[in-house]
Amino acid sequence: MSRTSFPFLCLAMLLLLLAGACNMPGSEPEGSPTPDVTQAYQTVQARLTEAATLTPPPSPTTKPTDTPAAATPTNTAQAATFVAPTTAPTSAVRLCDQADAGVPIDVTIPDNTQLAPNQTFTKVWRLHNSGSCTWTKNYSFAVFSGEALGSSANVPLPKQVEPGQSVDLTVDLVAPGSAGTYQSNWKLKNEAGTWFGIGPGGGSPFWVIIVVSSGAITVTPATATPVTPVPGTAYPPPSDGNEPLVLVSGNNIMVTNDRLNLDNNQLNSGGEDVGLEPNAQARLQLKTLGNAGMTGFGTAKPSYAQCLATGLGAAAVTMRNIPQGFYICYRTDQGLIGWLRVAGYNDTSGTLNLQINTWAQP
Protein backbone atom coordinates (compact mmCIF):
# COMPACT_ATOMS: atom_id res chain seq x y z
CA MET A 1 0.00 0.00 0.00
CA SER A 2 1.34 3.36 -0.88
CA ARG A 3 1.57 6.24 1.59
CA THR A 4 -0.73 8.32 -0.57
CA SER A 5 -3.73 5.92 -0.26
CA PHE A 6 -3.44 5.52 3.52
CA PRO A 7 -4.95 8.89 4.53
CA PHE A 8 -7.97 8.34 2.26
CA LEU A 9 -8.61 4.93 3.87
CA CYS A 10 -8.53 6.50 7.30
CA LEU A 11 -11.01 9.15 6.13
CA ALA A 12 -13.38 6.51 4.82
CA MET A 13 -13.28 4.55 8.07
CA LEU A 14 -13.90 7.68 10.09
CA LEU A 15 -16.94 8.54 7.99
CA LEU A 16 -18.36 5.04 8.44
CA LEU A 17 -17.91 5.27 12.19
CA LEU A 18 -19.64 8.63 12.30
CA ALA A 19 -22.51 7.31 10.19
CA GLY A 20 -22.94 4.32 12.46
CA ALA A 21 -22.90 6.46 15.52
CA CYS A 22 -25.75 8.45 14.14
CA ASN A 23 -27.97 5.29 13.85
CA MET A 24 -27.05 3.67 17.20
CA PRO A 25 -29.25 4.34 20.22
CA GLY A 26 -27.56 6.21 23.00
CA SER A 27 -28.31 7.82 26.24
CA GLU A 28 -27.09 11.17 25.19
CA PRO A 29 -28.01 13.96 27.56
CA GLU A 30 -30.81 16.17 26.52
CA GLY A 31 -29.82 19.40 25.04
CA SER A 32 -26.43 18.21 23.61
CA PRO A 33 -25.88 19.34 20.04
CA THR A 34 -26.04 16.78 17.29
CA PRO A 35 -22.60 16.25 15.65
CA ASP A 36 -22.32 17.92 12.23
CA VAL A 37 -20.98 15.40 9.66
CA THR A 38 -19.83 18.16 7.31
CA GLN A 39 -17.88 19.84 10.11
CA ALA A 40 -16.25 16.54 11.04
CA TYR A 41 -15.25 15.93 7.41
CA GLN A 42 -13.66 19.34 7.16
CA THR A 43 -11.73 18.73 10.38
CA VAL A 44 -10.42 15.40 9.12
CA GLN A 45 -9.49 16.93 5.75
CA ALA A 46 -7.57 19.73 7.49
CA ARG A 47 -5.62 17.19 9.54
CA LEU A 48 -4.83 15.17 6.44
CA THR A 49 -3.67 18.28 4.62
CA GLU A 50 -1.42 19.18 7.57
CA ALA A 51 -0.03 15.64 7.61
CA ALA A 52 0.63 15.76 3.90
CA THR A 53 2.49 19.05 4.30
CA LEU A 54 4.77 17.66 7.02
CA THR A 55 5.38 14.36 5.22
CA PRO A 56 8.43 14.46 2.92
CA PRO A 57 7.84 13.54 -0.70
CA PRO A 58 8.27 9.87 -1.48
CA SER A 59 11.64 8.73 -2.73
CA PRO A 60 11.61 7.60 -6.34
CA THR A 61 11.72 3.88 -6.67
CA THR A 62 13.00 4.03 -10.22
CA LYS A 63 16.79 4.24 -10.69
CA PRO A 64 17.64 7.46 -12.49
CA THR A 65 18.76 7.07 -16.02
CA ASP A 66 22.56 7.49 -16.38
CA THR A 67 23.75 10.45 -18.48
CA PRO A 68 25.14 9.04 -21.70
CA ALA A 69 28.89 9.50 -22.15
CA ALA A 70 30.03 12.12 -24.62
CA ALA A 71 30.35 10.70 -28.06
CA THR A 72 33.90 10.10 -29.25
CA PRO A 73 34.76 12.28 -32.28
CA THR A 74 34.88 10.28 -35.43
CA ASN A 75 37.59 12.47 -37.01
CA THR A 76 39.93 10.11 -38.78
CA ALA A 77 42.79 12.60 -39.22
CA GLN A 78 46.03 11.30 -37.77
CA ALA A 79 48.01 13.35 -35.22
CA ALA A 80 51.14 14.95 -36.68
CA THR A 81 54.21 12.87 -36.04
CA PHE A 82 57.59 14.70 -35.47
CA VAL A 83 60.39 13.17 -37.43
CA ALA A 84 63.86 13.99 -36.09
CA PRO A 85 66.28 15.30 -38.70
CA THR A 86 68.74 12.77 -39.94
CA THR A 87 71.61 15.31 -40.01
CA ALA A 88 72.75 17.92 -37.51
CA PRO A 89 72.03 21.57 -38.45
CA THR A 90 74.87 23.19 -40.33
CA SER A 91 76.74 26.21 -38.91
CA ALA A 92 76.45 29.64 -40.48
CA VAL A 93 78.26 29.86 -43.78
CA ARG A 94 81.17 32.30 -43.78
CA LEU A 95 81.15 35.01 -46.39
CA CYS A 96 84.06 35.30 -48.78
CA ASP A 97 84.91 38.87 -47.71
CA GLN A 98 84.18 39.41 -44.05
CA ALA A 99 86.06 41.23 -41.28
CA ASP A 100 85.87 41.45 -37.50
CA ALA A 101 87.36 43.95 -35.10
CA GLY A 102 90.86 43.05 -33.93
CA VAL A 103 92.11 43.24 -30.35
CA PRO A 104 92.27 46.13 -29.98
CA ILE A 105 90.68 47.62 -33.07
CA ASP A 106 92.00 51.11 -32.25
CA VAL A 107 95.76 50.59 -32.05
CA THR A 108 96.22 54.37 -32.18
CA ILE A 109 93.95 57.40 -31.80
CA PRO A 110 91.12 56.06 -29.62
CA ASP A 111 87.71 57.68 -30.00
CA ASN A 112 87.49 61.37 -29.01
CA THR A 113 91.24 61.96 -29.04
CA GLN A 114 91.94 65.71 -28.78
CA LEU A 115 94.08 67.21 -31.50
CA ALA A 116 95.18 70.68 -32.49
CA PRO A 117 93.77 72.34 -35.63
CA ASN A 118 95.49 71.09 -38.79
CA GLN A 119 97.52 68.56 -36.78
CA THR A 120 98.70 65.50 -38.67
CA PHE A 121 98.23 62.10 -37.06
CA THR A 122 98.54 58.42 -37.91
CA LYS A 123 95.51 56.19 -37.40
CA VAL A 124 96.01 52.43 -37.07
CA TRP A 125 93.13 49.93 -37.02
CA ARG A 126 93.57 46.21 -36.36
CA LEU A 127 91.17 43.97 -38.30
CA HIS A 128 90.70 40.20 -38.42
CA ASN A 129 89.94 38.27 -41.63
CA SER A 130 86.92 36.21 -40.54
CA GLY A 131 85.85 35.33 -44.08
CA SER A 132 86.80 32.45 -46.35
CA CYS A 133 88.84 34.42 -48.94
CA THR A 134 92.38 35.74 -48.84
CA TRP A 135 92.82 39.50 -48.80
CA THR A 136 95.52 40.15 -51.39
CA LYS A 137 97.56 43.31 -51.77
CA ASN A 138 95.01 44.35 -54.39
CA TYR A 139 92.52 44.84 -51.57
CA SER A 140 92.36 48.32 -50.11
CA PHE A 141 90.53 50.47 -47.57
CA ALA A 142 89.07 53.94 -47.99
CA VAL A 143 86.69 56.53 -46.57
CA PHE A 144 83.12 55.22 -46.87
CA SER A 145 81.31 58.20 -45.32
CA GLY A 146 81.90 61.13 -43.01
CA GLU A 147 85.00 63.34 -42.99
CA ALA A 148 87.86 62.53 -45.38
CA LEU A 149 90.50 64.07 -43.04
CA GLY A 150 92.87 64.54 -45.96
CA SER A 151 93.02 60.85 -46.91
CA SER A 152 93.70 59.54 -50.40
CA ALA A 153 91.04 57.68 -52.39
CA ASN A 154 92.26 54.14 -51.63
CA VAL A 155 94.97 52.83 -49.32
CA PRO A 156 96.35 49.41 -50.36
CA LEU A 157 96.65 46.70 -47.74
CA PRO A 158 100.22 46.41 -46.44
CA LYS A 159 100.34 42.62 -46.88
CA GLN A 160 98.37 39.56 -47.93
CA VAL A 161 95.99 38.45 -45.18
CA GLU A 162 94.85 34.82 -45.05
CA PRO A 163 91.56 33.76 -43.42
CA GLY A 164 92.03 33.76 -39.66
CA GLN A 165 94.88 36.30 -39.74
CA SER A 166 94.90 39.91 -38.57
CA VAL A 167 96.37 43.03 -40.13
CA ASP A 168 97.11 46.59 -38.98
CA LEU A 169 95.77 49.22 -41.37
CA THR A 170 97.74 52.48 -41.16
CA VAL A 171 96.86 55.81 -42.72
CA ASP A 172 98.19 59.37 -42.24
CA LEU A 173 95.42 61.91 -41.69
CA VAL A 174 95.07 65.63 -40.93
CA ALA A 175 92.73 67.21 -38.40
CA PRO A 176 90.44 69.97 -39.75
CA GLY A 177 91.35 73.58 -39.08
CA SER A 178 88.14 74.38 -37.19
CA ALA A 179 87.20 73.27 -33.70
CA GLY A 180 84.66 70.48 -33.37
CA THR A 181 84.13 66.72 -33.32
CA TYR A 182 84.79 64.85 -36.56
CA GLN A 183 84.10 61.24 -37.56
CA SER A 184 85.54 59.44 -40.57
CA ASN A 185 83.97 56.05 -41.48
CA TRP A 186 86.02 53.50 -43.43
CA LYS A 187 85.45 50.16 -45.15
CA LEU A 188 87.50 47.60 -47.06
CA LYS A 189 87.35 47.01 -50.81
CA ASN A 190 88.05 43.74 -52.58
CA GLU A 191 89.79 43.37 -55.95
CA ALA A 192 86.52 44.10 -57.77
CA GLY A 193 86.04 47.32 -55.82
CA THR A 194 83.14 45.95 -53.74
CA TRP A 195 82.81 47.48 -50.28
CA PHE A 196 82.70 45.32 -47.14
CA GLY A 197 83.09 46.12 -43.46
CA ILE A 198 82.98 44.47 -40.07
CA GLY A 199 80.28 42.69 -38.09
CA PRO A 200 77.48 40.34 -39.25
CA GLY A 201 77.19 40.49 -43.02
CA GLY A 202 80.10 42.91 -43.24
CA GLY A 203 77.80 45.93 -43.15
CA SER A 204 79.38 48.08 -40.44
CA PRO A 205 82.25 50.52 -41.04
CA PHE A 206 85.23 51.09 -38.76
CA TRP A 207 85.93 54.71 -37.86
CA VAL A 208 88.08 57.37 -36.26
CA ILE A 209 86.58 60.12 -34.08
CA ILE A 210 88.69 63.15 -33.15
CA VAL A 211 87.99 66.33 -31.23
CA VAL A 212 89.73 69.42 -32.57
CA SER A 213 90.46 71.88 -29.77
CA SER A 214 89.64 75.54 -30.17
CA GLY A 215 92.80 76.59 -28.36
CA ALA A 216 96.42 75.54 -28.35
CA ILE A 217 97.21 72.22 -26.68
CA THR A 218 99.67 72.61 -23.87
CA VAL A 219 102.66 70.33 -24.36
CA THR A 220 105.11 69.56 -21.60
CA PRO A 221 108.46 69.23 -23.38
CA ALA A 222 111.05 66.70 -22.40
CA THR A 223 113.66 67.91 -20.00
CA ALA A 224 116.84 67.65 -22.01
CA THR A 225 120.28 67.74 -20.50
CA PRO A 226 123.07 68.37 -23.03
CA VAL A 227 125.67 65.64 -23.20
CA THR A 228 129.16 65.60 -24.61
CA PRO A 229 129.20 64.34 -28.21
CA VAL A 230 130.74 60.95 -28.79
CA PRO A 231 134.45 61.43 -29.65
CA GLY A 232 135.18 60.93 -33.32
CA THR A 233 131.52 61.26 -34.33
CA ALA A 234 130.67 64.01 -36.81
CA TYR A 235 127.30 65.78 -36.62
CA PRO A 236 127.52 68.50 -39.32
CA PRO A 237 124.47 69.25 -41.41
CA PRO A 238 124.71 68.32 -45.06
CA SER A 239 126.79 70.89 -46.93
CA ASP A 240 124.43 70.88 -49.89
CA GLY A 241 121.35 71.43 -47.76
CA ASN A 242 119.83 68.04 -48.62
CA GLU A 243 118.75 65.45 -46.07
CA PRO A 244 121.08 62.52 -45.44
CA LEU A 245 119.97 59.08 -46.51
CA VAL A 246 117.51 57.40 -44.18
CA LEU A 247 119.06 54.36 -42.51
CA VAL A 248 115.88 52.95 -40.91
CA SER A 249 112.25 54.03 -40.64
CA GLY A 250 108.92 52.48 -39.71
CA ASN A 251 106.41 51.94 -36.92
CA ASN A 252 106.72 49.97 -33.72
CA ILE A 253 104.52 49.34 -30.68
CA MET A 254 105.94 49.43 -27.17
CA VAL A 255 104.32 48.24 -23.96
CA THR A 256 105.43 48.68 -20.35
CA ASN A 257 109.16 47.90 -19.82
CA ASP A 258 109.85 47.45 -23.55
CA ARG A 259 113.14 48.84 -24.89
CA LEU A 260 113.69 50.02 -28.46
CA ASN A 261 116.90 50.15 -30.51
CA LEU A 262 116.58 53.23 -32.71
CA ASP A 263 119.48 52.11 -34.93
CA ASN A 264 117.51 49.13 -36.29
CA ASN A 265 113.94 49.53 -34.93
CA GLN A 266 114.18 46.27 -32.94
CA LEU A 267 112.58 45.69 -29.54
CA ASN A 268 114.45 44.14 -26.61
CA SER A 269 117.28 42.86 -28.78
CA GLY A 270 120.22 44.68 -27.17
CA GLY A 271 121.77 48.08 -27.78
CA GLU A 272 118.46 49.84 -26.97
CA ASP A 273 118.25 53.62 -26.92
CA VAL A 274 114.88 54.29 -25.21
CA GLY A 275 112.68 52.41 -22.74
CA LEU A 276 109.03 52.71 -21.69
CA GLU A 277 109.13 52.57 -17.89
CA PRO A 278 106.87 53.71 -15.02
CA ASN A 279 108.05 56.57 -12.84
CA ALA A 280 107.59 56.96 -9.07
CA GLN A 281 103.94 57.95 -9.65
CA ALA A 282 103.38 54.87 -11.84
CA ARG A 283 103.11 57.08 -14.94
CA LEU A 284 104.78 55.67 -18.02
CA GLN A 285 107.78 57.58 -19.33
CA LEU A 286 109.87 57.24 -22.45
CA LYS A 287 113.46 57.42 -21.14
CA THR A 288 116.80 57.53 -22.84
CA LEU A 289 119.22 54.68 -22.16
CA GLY A 290 123.02 54.65 -22.20
CA ASN A 291 124.53 57.40 -24.30
CA ALA A 292 121.34 58.16 -26.27
CA GLY A 293 119.79 61.59 -26.10
CA MET A 294 116.50 63.23 -27.06
CA THR A 295 114.41 66.36 -26.68
CA GLY A 296 110.89 67.45 -27.60
CA PHE A 297 110.47 69.31 -30.89
CA GLY A 298 106.76 69.94 -31.63
CA THR A 299 103.94 68.97 -33.98
CA ALA A 300 105.84 69.82 -37.19
CA LYS A 301 108.24 67.24 -38.65
CA PRO A 302 111.84 68.33 -38.00
CA SER A 303 114.66 68.25 -40.52
CA TYR A 304 118.06 66.69 -39.94
CA ALA A 305 119.61 70.12 -39.30
CA GLN A 306 116.89 71.05 -36.82
CA CYS A 307 117.28 67.86 -34.78
CA LEU A 308 121.06 68.26 -34.87
CA ALA A 309 120.79 71.82 -33.53
CA THR A 310 118.62 70.87 -30.50
CA GLY A 311 120.04 69.85 -27.17
CA LEU A 312 120.00 66.06 -27.40
CA GLY A 313 120.61 64.90 -23.87
CA ALA A 314 119.38 62.36 -21.35
CA ALA A 315 115.65 62.86 -20.88
CA ALA A 316 112.42 61.31 -19.66
CA VAL A 317 109.09 62.17 -21.27
CA THR A 318 105.84 61.47 -19.43
CA MET A 319 103.63 60.06 -22.17
CA ARG A 320 100.29 61.26 -20.85
CA ASN A 321 101.54 64.84 -21.37
CA ILE A 322 102.39 64.29 -25.05
CA PRO A 323 99.64 64.50 -27.71
CA GLN A 324 99.40 62.27 -30.74
CA GLY A 325 101.48 63.58 -33.61
CA PHE A 326 104.19 65.10 -31.42
CA TYR A 327 107.81 64.81 -32.70
CA ILE A 328 110.87 64.12 -30.57
CA CYS A 329 114.41 64.47 -31.91
CA TYR A 330 116.96 61.87 -30.77
CA ARG A 331 120.52 60.72 -31.02
CA THR A 332 121.17 56.98 -30.83
CA ASP A 333 123.96 55.40 -28.79
CA GLN A 334 125.75 55.00 -32.11
CA GLY A 335 125.65 58.76 -32.69
CA LEU A 336 122.97 58.74 -35.39
CA ILE A 337 120.37 61.52 -35.58
CA GLY A 338 116.69 60.93 -36.05
CA TRP A 339 113.16 61.70 -34.95
CA LEU A 340 110.31 59.69 -33.49
CA ARG A 341 106.66 60.55 -33.75
CA VAL A 342 104.05 59.63 -31.14
CA ALA A 343 101.49 58.01 -33.43
CA GLY A 344 99.28 56.95 -30.52
CA TYR A 345 99.28 56.29 -26.80
CA ASN A 346 96.75 54.47 -24.60
CA ASP A 347 97.28 55.32 -20.94
CA THR A 348 94.91 52.56 -19.78
CA SER A 349 96.67 49.69 -21.56
CA GLY A 350 100.12 51.31 -21.50
CA THR A 351 100.55 50.94 -25.27
CA LEU A 352 102.76 53.38 -27.20
CA ASN A 353 102.78 53.46 -31.00
CA LEU A 354 105.87 55.12 -32.46
CA GLN A 355 107.00 56.06 -35.93
CA ILE A 356 110.79 56.45 -36.18
CA ASN A 357 113.19 57.88 -38.72
CA THR A 358 116.95 57.45 -38.28
CA TRP A 359 119.30 59.11 -40.73
CA ALA A 360 122.60 57.60 -41.78
CA GLN A 361 125.76 59.63 -41.39
CA PRO A 362 125.90 62.40 -44.01
Q: How is this structure best described in words?
A:
The protein has 362 residues and is mainly beta. Among the domains are: 99-212, Immunoglobulins (Immunoglobulin-like), CATH 2.60.40.10; 246-359, no CATH class. 12% of the residues lie in helices and 32% in strands. It is built from 3 helices and 19 strands. It has helices at 5-23, 37-54, 304-309, and strands at 99-106, 113-115, 120-129, 140-146, 155-156, 166-174, 180-189, 195-196, 206-212, 246-254, 259-261, 266-267, 274-278, 284-288, 293-298, 316-318, 327-331, 337-346, 351-359. Strands 2, 4, 5, 7, 8 and 9 form a 6-stranded mixed beta sheet that branches. It has a 5-stranded antiparallel beta sheet with strand order 10-19-18-17-15. The longest helix is centred in the first third of the chain and has 19 residues, at 5-23. The radius of gyration is 54 Å and the shape is elongated. The N and C termini lie far apart (147 Å). The model is unreliable at 24-35, 67-91 and 216-240 (pLDDT under 50).
